[in-house]
Amino acid sequence: MPVILERSNPCSSKHAHIVSDTEYTADIQITDHIISAIGQSLAPRDHEQVIDATGAIVMPGLIDVHVHFREPGFTAKETIKTGAAAAAHGGFTTVVAMSNLKPVPDTVETLKPLLKKNQADAKITVLQFAPITHDLHSDQVVDMAALQAAGALGFSNDGVGVQDADTMYQAMQQAAKLHAPIVAHIEDASLMHGGVINAGPVAKKLNLPGIINQTESSQLARDLELAAATGVHYHACHVSTRQSVDLIREAKKTRGKRHR
Length: 260
Ligand SMILES: [Zn+2]
Prior knowledge:
Blueprint: E1 11-19, E2 23-31, E3 34-39, E4 49-52, E5 57-58, E6 62-67, H1 80-89, E7 92-97, H2 108-121, E8 125-130, H3 144-150, E9 154-156, H4 165-178, E10 182-184, E11 197-198, H5 201-206, E12 210-211, H6 214-230, E13 234-236, H7 242-254
Helix pairs in contact: 4-6, 6-7
InterPro entries: DHOase/Allantoinase_Hydrolase, DHOase_cat, Dihydroorotase_CS, Metal-dep_hydrolase_composite, Metal_Hydrolase
Keywords: Hydrolase, Metal-binding, Pyrimidine biosynthesis, Zinc
Cofactor: Zn(2+)
């Protein structure tokens, strides 16, 4: 179980199984939240809190670049405090939170209090994506420069696709200038037809309305073309179809070559 050290007095963990570049078992001494010594049978210091780490793994904190803390707006599901605690419990010390919140943090005025609360309520580092467009609609790109200056790590409309190609093109142009990533939820709404699961044998078996794979892959194909044209750092979230994997593989092979 992950242990978050809140006390500033010295502490040490004994018999920790350390997973870093290599794996080994050793004692770790911590002073002022920083590892001050790693070694075999380290002598205890005065007033030291000792944690028996036998059977536990000690490793660098994990990073999750895609979390939803649902605050503000949907706190019945999750809050910054509970989400960050769950992340810490799983060994994650840095996470990046998505922006499909209420209000959507699409202006400096709505982003700033959110960043403040991320910092105040979480014991881990919570970084924040701002949305690509105002209110997650597909027509008006946010002021990316202002939001980045206020502290946004990058831009994502996670939860919904950007339906308009020109909006995405403009967003990518802005983001490329700022060296900020565009983190895309790829889903063409016009191909959804009320589907709730990828079409295929599982949808059939569960008798659920299916979504054809091209709902994802056709928007991805568009984005990859626009990303190549703008040179933006582009990331596709939760890819779920074979066609998308093929497209990404192909784009990785040719990107750069086409750009030069
Ligand atoms: Zn998501």
